[in-house]
Amino acid sequence: MSKMVPVPHDSIVPERDVNKLPILEARHLGIEFGGLKAVDDFNLTIGRTEIAGLIGPNGAGKTTVFNLLTKVYQPTSGTILLDGKDTHALNTVQVNKAGIARTFQNIRLFGNLSVEDNVKIGLHNQIKYGMANGVLRLPKYWKKEKEMHEKAIELLSIFDMQDMAGNQAGSLPYGAQRRLEIVRALATNPKLLLLDEPAAGMNPSETAELMNNIRKIRDTFKIAVLLIEHDMNLVMGVCEGICVLNFGKIIAKGTPDEIQNNPDVIEAYLGKK
């Protein structure tokens, strides 16, 4: 795991990323719902190949932050820079094409489609053919279909799921559905992958496998990962930098060791002694 070093805007990134443009900078990000500040003055910098964690008690605003980063919600205040570019004018689809992919707390697969077809849906950013080619099944259509099949199988093989390609997605065991959702997100060719509680419902051995796979994703694709997670063994085992939210505000940032020993974090989770 890389040493974390300070960078401007009161943040830390892995030492290997320190002289590169951060993949994400959220500056003074906030949103109000009916006068209530759900997220207030949120600042976060993520290095280009960092595995980062966003943690906090239930209702702290973590998923709201993901919704702001992916433009499900438009921020009331603040700026989001993705790979140095302001995303304020982008919508959800455009943000995905620009390089942010995500999974959700509640699995959102096309359950009636095959595993491979779910991955192919994610490939729409990369492999295209015109309407005429698709309707008339011209040679270019079949060439692209072959490319998509090969790419889908390649992505599924990351999680040893290539033999499940023809299975109906909704028939997969829970853990496999979680993995498929991550594969589909990777199919959009992201620069930053957002994982919303990826270990939810997993047993300890599945969680340990997930930890290895998150590292494998970072190393294989050379991308950054930001995850929301309640499983502290996973967070402390895989994350390099951690940001802690409580009532929509950041109460701590640091390495796993710093966060584990931070009295404000302990109080937020466990209450005052």
Protein model, in words:
By secondary structure, the chain is an alpha/beta fold. 37% of the residues lie in helices and 25% in strands. The protein has helices at 62-69, 92-98, 115-122, 131-136, 139-158, 174-186, 204-221, 232-238, 256-260, 263-270, and strands spanning 4-7, 11-14, 24-33, 36-46, 51-55, 77-82, 85-86, 100-102, 192-196, 224-228, 241-246, 249-254. It has a six-stranded mixed sheet with strand order 8-9-10-5-11-12, sandwiched between helices. Strands 4-3-6-7 form a four-stranded antiparallel sheet, with helices on one face. α3 (115-122) packs parallel to α6 (174-186). It is globular, with a radius of gyration of 19 Å. The two termini are 33 Å apart. The model has no long low-confidence stretch (mean pLDDT 90).
Furnish the topology, listing elements before pairings.
Layout lengths: L3 E4 L3 E4 L9 E10 L2 E11 L4 E5 L6 H8 L7 E6 L2 E2 L5 H7 L1 E3 L12 H8 L8 H6 L2 H20 L15 H13 L5 E5 L7 H18 L2 E5 L3 H7 L2 E6 L2 E6 L1 H5 L2 H8 L3
Parallel strand pairs: 5-10, 5-11, 8-9, 9-10
Antiparallel strand pairs: 1-2, 3-4, 3-6, 6-7, 11-12
β content, as a range? 15-25%
Count, helices:
10
Number of extended strands: 12
Tell me, briefly, the overall form: globular
**Alpha-carbon distance between the two ends:** 33 Å
Largest sheet, in brief, is: 6 strands, mixed
Widest sheet, order of strands: 8-9-10-5-11-12
Overall pLDDT score:
90
Name the poorly predicted regions: none
SSE string, helix = H, strand = E? EEEEEHEEHEHHHHEHEHEEHH
Rg calc: 19 Å
Helix content: 25-40%
The structural class is: alpha/beta
